[in-house]
Write a structure and sequence with these properties.
six-stranded mixed β-sheet; 151 residues; 27% strand; alpha/beta; 6 strands; disordered C terminus
Length: 151
């Protein structure tokens, strides 16, 4: 952090549809490169672990489970990088499919900045298109706002 500023990076990895292992490898390479260049907050595209155009594959439990498995590997990879990382993946809750953003990485940054980010999201009224209400999802001892996936 220089003069109270931190470097933020938007990282767009090359992804393959439903190839969560390949996508995780590309995400980790992006994390490594951005962190090496001094980025401390890294934001990846929505659904980057699965790729966006999975269509009916989003309804397959195997894809959803694979996304969760790769998310845990990404979270492990972020340890010691000194960066707060946001990645997107599909998540199922109570029979509904959601487009979720998960965070991992530097807990010092997350405590300081994540609460500010979440307040801004809530002010903008991120909501489920179906119910018009915000939906919260718990995963890895954290809570996240969700947006519905529409086909």
């Amino acid at each position: 952090m220089k003069q109270g500023f931190i470097k933020v990076a938007a990282v767009t990895p090359k992804v393959k549809v439903a190839d969560t292992v390949y996508n995780r490898e590309q995400i980790c390479a992006g994390i490594e490169e951005a962190a090496a260049k001094g980025a401390r907050v890294l934001v990846f595209p929505e659904l980057c672990i699965s790729a966006y155009t999975c269509g009916d594959l989003f309804l397959q439990e195997r894809l959803l489970a694979s996304c969760r498995e790769e998310l845990l590997k990404i979270a492990e990879f972020t340890k010691g990088k000194g960066a707060l990382v946001f990645v997107g993946l599909p998540m199922e809750r109570e029979g509904k499919l959601y487009n979720a953003a998960m965070r991992g990485g530097c807990s010092a940054l997350s405590r300081r900045f994540l609460s500010h980010l979440m307040v801004n999201f809530m002010r903008r009224g991120i909501s489920s298109r179906e119910t018009g209400k915000r939906s919260l999802f718990g995963f890895m001892e954290s809570r996240f706002l969700l947006g519905r996936i529409s086909f």
